[in-house]
Design goal:
CATH architecture of the largest domain: Orthogonal Bundle
Shape: globular
Helix content: over 70%
CATH superfamily of the largest domain: RNA polymerase sigma factor, region 2, helix turn helix motif
CATH class of the largest domain: Mainly Alpha
CATH topology of the largest domain: Rna Polymerase Sigma Factor, Chain: A
Number of strands: 0
Distance between the termini: 47 Å
Number of helices: 12
Strand content: under 5%
Length: 193
């Protein structure tokens, strides 16, 4: 992607793509790595499966570009498609999300832990990315989804609301409860160390 193309907003690229379909390649370039990382964190681990899910995401996005609601951000819209495609993949495979080894675990732990929790659990030494990934697998999917979107994908509450199609007020509640579940899962793992 050129420097000029890189500075274009998503909405400008969408408008350009509606006029010139070849411009959709810019959307793919901009979102391919982000969406691959997102579906991997949701549990689509196999490389070939990731490529299949990504292909479905971009096909659906392209086919439905005319119906993109400009009152939403494009990022929220395409992440919603990615979310739906990952869930569809699980249903087709009849598998449970496996989770993924999280390389930026320490950053996430610092975001989800309060000072009091950090004092109770020695996150810095005792919790690594593997343990965090295992703990995320243990919590309910509805909490896992919001935690991944908030702390790994760095989405704001409104975007999470748009992506998951839930009220904004529910996002905060789900994050709060998800952090508690994750805290308990990590606490039980550390107690076993």
């Amino acid at each position: 992607m050129s420097e000029v193309e890189n500075q274009l907003s998503d909405e400008v690229i969408v408008a350009e793509t509606l006029k010139e379909p070849n411009s959709f390649g810019l959307i793919i370039e901009r979102y391919e790595a982000k969406l691959k990382r997102y579906i991997m964190r949701l549990g689509v681990r196999n490389h070939d499966d990731q490529l299949d899910v990504l292909q479905e995401i971009f096909i659906k996005a392209y086919r439905n570009l005319n119906s993109f609601d400009t009152s939403l951000t494009f990022s929220s819209w395409i992440y919603r498609i990615a979310h739906n495609e990952a869930i569809s993949w699980y249903r087709k495979q009849s598998v449970r999300p496996e989770g993924h080894l999280i390389s930026d675990g320490e950053d996430v732990l610092s975001l989800i832990s309060s000072k009091e929790e950090a004092a109770e659990i020695a996150f810095d030494k005792n919790v690594n990315a593997t343990e965090l990934a295992k703990a995320l697998e243990e919590i309910e999917l509805k909490y896992k989804e919001v935690l991944i979107l908030r702390y790994f994908e760095h989405k704001e509450y409104e975007e999470i609301s748009d992506i998951l199609k839930i009220p904004s007020g529910s996002v905060g509640t789900l994050i709060y409860r998800g952090k508690k579940q994750l805290y308990n899962a990590l606490n039980s793992k550390i107690a076993r160390i």
